[in-house]
Amino acid sequence: MLWRVELGEGYAAAAIDRGRVYVLDVEVPEPDGPGTADVLRCLSLADGAEIWRNSYPNPITRNHGMSRTIPALYEDMVITLGPRLDVGGWDAETGESRWLFSMVERYGSEERQWYAGQCPLVDEGRVILAPGAADALLVALDYRTGEEIWRTPNPRGWKMTHSSIMPMEYAGQAMYVYCGTGGTVGVAAEDGRILWDETSWRENFATSPSPLVLPGGRILLSSGYGTIGAMFLQLTEEDGDWQVETAASLDRSDFNSEQQTPILYEGHIYGIRKHRGGQLVCLDLEGRELWNSGADRFGHGPYMIADGLILALETDGQLVAAEATAEGYRPLWRYTVFPDGHEAWGPMAMVGGHLVVRDVRQMACLDLRRN
């Protein structure tokens, strides 16, 4: 353990660059009171000391916590999307606000239950967002100014979900894949036009995991509410004509995920299945289970793969490391990050062996390097 800091209540996680940790926190002036502002904090990766902070007013009450999303870092900028759909561009060195607007006011976006879960994507200098508005399903903005470059029409009237946009390239076409409330869409990266969409994967109460791009034009979609499990999509393209069809569906007992996005690693899919209490599982590319973690249960906790290790954080704050192999579940060590941990759901970030994790009220940094 290198350091630990207190945060406002929530799940907003870290982005790390050049020895600095950025987190879009929430300001709560009174203990257990409502939040009054979104606060972008810049901390030292070495010791957790605060380097700078900047904020804007954001009255917010507790609704499964308050903070939510992860900043995107690009060149000298930090891009944020707040829980109530405020989008901002900030100077990474000083914290100065370069631009800030509300997606509710600019596009007519609707706030979702539990606030926004969508994290901003920056791709080649463009900020890619999904307002889910009447005339703007997706938009691309200039990262320097926040000015619009293109927008995707919304002919089916889909609204925003908690899912984030994922980049994909297939058949020589760069695209962005997004799960809206009524299905999944792929839009051209260069101009935002719709290449394909489908309506088989509809939101059931909430969709939070992002699409997982697989080899050969396949995509894995997952959720964790009710009887929903997972679904594979297959893309095909011929002379510019795009088609998408359902390749296979998985029952929730095979795989489902309420919050975290599964990982593709060396030809296999790793994820935490909500069904059966949050077992870590390894699937082949057809969705067949190769192993599960048995009595080790992780709830809605985050996970990542680094240097051949699966790092998975249990809901109560215990970190487990296991071999990232399809041959079986092989845990190597455990470490209690938060002795009194609660709802440790925010995604992990790692740079140079420094792992940054959080629970609902604390953020910590561990040094995982060997002596």
Radius of gyration: 20 Å
Beta-strand percent range: over 45%
Shape: globular
What is the quaternary state of this protein?
Answer: single chain
**CATH architecture descriptor text of the domain at 260-344:** Beta Barrel
The CATH class label of the domain at 260-344 is Mainly Beta
End-to-end CA span: 14 Å
How many helices in DSSP terms? 2
Q: Provide mean pLDDT, rounded.
A: 97
DSSP, total strands: 32
Low-confidence stretches: none
Largest sheet: 4 strands, antiparallel
Structural class: mainly beta
**Order of neighbouring strands in the sheet with most strands:** 1-32-31-30
Output the CATH topology of the domain at 260-344.
Thrombin, subunit H
Fraction of residues in H or I helices: under 10%
Written description of the protein model:
- By secondary structure, the protein is an all-beta fold.
- The protein has a domain at 260-344: Thrombin, subunit H (Beta Barrel).
- It contains 2 helices and 32 strands.
- Strands 1-32-31-30 form a 4-stranded antiparallel β-sheet, with no helix packed on it. Strands 2-3-4-5 form a 4-stranded antiparallel β-sheet, with no helix packed on it.
